[in-house]
Backbone:
């Protein structure tokens, strides 16, 4: 089994934190923090997070530089924590953890250890991490989600941004944002029902009556999320 060093996740806001910090699985990764930087988003508007080697020469057995990545696997509908195979390319990475949380289609950022279950991939770790991640065996902080968007209200850290009216019959208006890039609207099953370039007016007249999630994406990778009711 390859010797690895572990990752640090952090629970953060949608619009401010762009890093994830993790400390855990000390049997493989020692007692140290790993910081993941958000490097962009994928084709599904999910964040991509990659570490910078802590020292550049730390011992990770066959993994070389100890680089790690957290990204969305759309085929399996889950978030994954990957360890580089040693070349820094992530061409054949090792799966260390995956999150089994339902409703992951809603999440642009990875879930925290208190939301769903980060499952240890014992085929790679041989169980050395002590099982699934919990608050008792790991610390996870930063750009994370802590609850299901399907069952709890979404919060934004920028009170100046507003959508109105809500409930809405035809057009939602957005105020308080000047660097918008795109919007997506999801139904409560996590299905994308509308996607277009950002505009302060969004026509939703074609949507069926119900509850929806509006995601506003900015040009600097920030995201603001709002629930609204279509009449």
Residues:
């Amino acid at each position: 089994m390859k010797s690895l060093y572990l990752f640090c996740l952090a629970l953060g806001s949608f619009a401010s934190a762009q890093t994830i910090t993790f400390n855990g699985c000390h049997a493989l990764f020692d007692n140290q923090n790993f910081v993941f930087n958000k490097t962009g988003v994928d084709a599904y508007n999910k964040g991509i997070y990659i570490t910078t080697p802590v020292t550049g020469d730390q011992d990770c057995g066959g993994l070389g530089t100890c680089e790690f990545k957290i990204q969305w696997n759309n085929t399996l509908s889950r978030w994954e924590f990957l360890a580089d195979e040693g070349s820094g390319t992530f061409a054949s990475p090792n799966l260390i953890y995956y999150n089994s949380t339902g409703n992951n289609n809603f999440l642009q950022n990875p879930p925290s250890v208190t939301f769903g279950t980060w499952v240890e991939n014992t085929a790679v770790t041989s169980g050395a991490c002590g099982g699934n991640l919990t608050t008792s065996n790991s610390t996870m902080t930063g750009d994370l989600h802590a609850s299901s968007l399907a069952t709890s209200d979404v919060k934004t850290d920028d009170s100046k941004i507003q959508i109105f009216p809500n409930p809405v019959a035809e057009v939602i208006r957005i105020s308080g944002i000047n660097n918008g890039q795109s919007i997506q609207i999801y139904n409560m099953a996590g299905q994308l029902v509308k996607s277009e370039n950002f505009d302060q007016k969004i026509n939703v007249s074609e949507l069926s009556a119900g509850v929806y999630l509006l995601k506003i994406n900015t040009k600097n990778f920030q995201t603001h999320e709002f629930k609204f009711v279509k009449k």
Q: What stands out?
A: Confidence is low (pLDDT under 50) at residues 1-17, 149-158. The chain is about 5% helix and 40% strand. Residues 26-29 form the longest helix (4 residues). The radius of gyration is 19 Å.
